[in-house]
Structure formats: structure tokens, C-alpha cells
Amino acid sequence: MNTPTRVAVITGASQGIGAGLVQAYRKLGYGVVANSRHIGQSDDPMVHTVAGDISQPGVGQRVIDAAMQQFGRVDTVVNNAGIFIAKPFTEYTDADYDAITGVNMRGFFEVTRSALAVMHAGGHIVNISTSFVDQANSKVPSALASLTKGGLNAATKALAVEYADRGIRANAVALGVISTPMHDPASHEALAALNPMERLGDVDDAVEAVVYLEQAGFVTGEILHVDGGQSAGR
């Protein structure tokens, strides 16, 4: 189906921030291709779901191929899928490394590479990162998150420069701790203390930041911190 409607591809779209992004882009009038490992069909004909683990070779290309087949275009990619495992560095296992780099880096690489091959002027890449890249905390040791998400921050700026002459922007949102089902409510008080505002972010805080970047046509290469001041220090 070819349509003039703009189309957003969102990974990690089955719950939390990803699910919020699907709703937000639909409100903007976009068609959406929503991906996660386990995602069911949508009742909305303008939301096409593609189940698959983007850490696996070929899945990212399959997601973009599905977008082209369903809608005939890709205008925005939000690389939202991510894995965050906090533990002392020497306790990370090979399986941890494979899982984190697979989703955070290979998933980004294949989806974004495939999308940029078909994206036209006005396109937009948004990468979801973390403020722990800028402000490490001994209470939350997470070197592999910094390795992968720090790489995404650098790649964001590189893509912004490389694709500016094609009219394609690239930005990132570096999040603090957001209240999602992945966090045990018993940990909320301790997690809130990581930033000077002393509260967790809401899904809407993250979604609104992405929507801002989507509509900010003169912003590219930006790492937008949405973290209650966490990256500024204590």
C-alpha cells in the first residue's frame, strides 16, 4: 500500500516507552511499523506490527522491508529497543555482552542502515540513550550500557553530519530512570535519588522529548537529556 502519510518505525514497541511512542506518532498522523520480540497484531490499520528480535541478523532488514511493503516509505526510525544490565564489570558474562551489544548496537545498526537506504529528505533517526554515559554512578555500575549507548551518541552525531546534505536528521534522547514495568516499585525511591529532582521520569517525559525532536526541523546531532538533571550532577 503506497500512501503519502509519513511513516515511523519504532523498535521495542510492545510496552512502556515504545508503546507510548506508537500512540504519539499516530496522534501526529503517522503510519507506524511497530517491532518487538513478542508483539501482537494491532486493531489500528495504520499500525503494522512485526515480531522479531532485532539483535538477530536479518531482522532489522525485515522490519524495514515490511514498512516499505505496507506503506511504501520510511520517514522516521526510533531506535527505542534496548537492554540495560547493571552489575560490577567483572561480573558481566559473555551472555550479558552478547545480549546488550546485540540489541543496543546490532539492532540499531541493521535497522538504521536499512532505513537510510530508502529514506528521503525530511527523514529522521532518533536513538534512545542513557544519561549514565555522561554521569557514571558507582551505585549503578553499568559499563556495558555506557559502551553501547555512548557509541550510539557518537553515531548520532556522525550520521547527522553525514546525511545533512540529504535533508535527513539524527538525534538522541539520553534518559534518566523512567518509571516503566522493568523497575521494581521497591527500587523507585533509590532510583529517584539519582537525580537532583528526586523523582522518576514518566513515559510521557520520554515520549514528549522524541515528539519535540520530530517536530524540530533545525535540530540535528543533538543529545537531548531527559533525566531530572542527572547528567548535571548532584
UniProtKB/TrEMBL annotation:
Task: Extract one GO BP annotation from the record.
Answer: fatty acid elongation
Q: What is this protein called?
A: 3-oxoacyl-ACP reductase
Q: Which residues cross the membrane?
A: none
Residues in a coiled coil are none
Phylogenetic lineage = Bacteria, Bacillati, Actinomycetota, Actinomycetes, Mycobacteriales
Q: Which GO terms describe its molecular function?
A: oxidoreductase activity, acting on the CH-OH group of donors, NAD or NADP as acceptor
SUPFAM superfamilies the UniProt entry points to: NAD(P)-binding Rossmann-fold domains (SSF51735)
Q: Which Gene3D superfamilies does the annotation name?
A: NAD(P)-binding Rossmann-like Domain
- InterPro entries, alphabetically? NAD(P)-bd_dom_sf, SDR_fam
A Pfam family: adh_short_C2
Similarity comment: Belongs to the short-chain dehydrogenases/reductases (SDR) family.
Per the record, the domain of life is: Bacteria
